[in-house]
């Protein structure tokens, strides 16, 4: 069966166009990827995990970037079905994953982060709730270094009216104050104006409670795809890692960074940030008394 013959697929593509403002070329790309998957395993909306797993054979000859794109389209589709109550389970965990050759931890460069923000800001000009929420996600992940769980479970009570800080409850139920930039404050305010009433979380789920970490992960990868980046390179943790590394590159103190990240041990912060050796050598040459003499 062709993917375009499935009503659920058409609803998904319509959602991309109406709610996310996706361009016609983007819609066409999603349609091709979903259609190809449906030709391999049959109707997508009712596919089992076992049927989804068969795509590993159908996609075996694809380049890693193509496999990543097709898998991302399918993850987005199944996330949509679950969010809309059209399906109770999400079988996308059985999708094939491209082999990664990049070392861990992964890091986004300044240009790549800029591409994500340009796409998110362009989307937000439509003023749809989904686009404003996505921009708020991005601002808090990269601008404040929040963990994925801390972000999605952020209660409304943690957002003060008169101070540029969030009260974050991190690992071990420890609390810390996290500064929020002026642009992140605006993005958060814009989202809250369209969020609607009800619920105690900043980012509620349509089914009650707060948005899942998995859904956040999917939305970020969808944004990366539209921004022209490898979606396998983008995740909430990668943005948190970029926040830490880019702050250190800009001269931030390691102890301050430890506080911002909510690390109990400074050794965790040192492992997490991996600032390049060239910058450390330059720092010694500039700051050490013997170097100046």
Write the layout of secondary structure elements.
Elements: H1 7-18, H2 24-41, H3 49-53, H4 55-58, H5 64-83, H6 110-124, H7 129-144, H8 148-152, E1 165-169, E2 175-179, H9 182-195, H10 213-226, H11 236-249, H12 254-261, H13 266-273, H14 277-287, H15 289-292
Antiparallel strand pairs: 1-2
Helix pairs in contact: 1-2, 2-5, 5-10, 6-7, 7-9, 7-11, 12-13
Task: Describe this structure as you would to a colleague.
By secondary structure, the chain is mainly alpha-helical. It is 57% helix and 3% strand. It contains 15 helices and two strands. A two-stranded antiparallel sheet has the order 1-2. A hairpin with a 5-residue loop joins strand 1 and strand 2. Helix 12 crosses helix 13. The longest helix is centred in the N-terminal third of the chain and has 20 residues. The chain is globular.
Number of helical runs? 15
Radius of gyration computed on alpha carbons: 21 Å
Cα(first) to Cα(last) distance is 76 Å
Sheet-strand content, in percent, reads under 5%
The biggest sheet amounts to: 2 strands, antiparallel
Strands, count: 2
Please mark out the parts with pLDDT under 50 across 5 or more consecutive residues, or reply none.
none
Going across the biggest sheet, name each strand in turn.
1-2
Structural class: mainly alpha
Write a brief caption for the model:
This protein has 293 residues and is mainly α. It has helices at residues 7-18, 24-41, 49-53, 55-58, 64-83, 110-124, 129-144, 148-152, 182-195, 213-226, 236-249, 254-261, 266-273, 277-287, 289-292; strands spanning 165-169, 175-179.
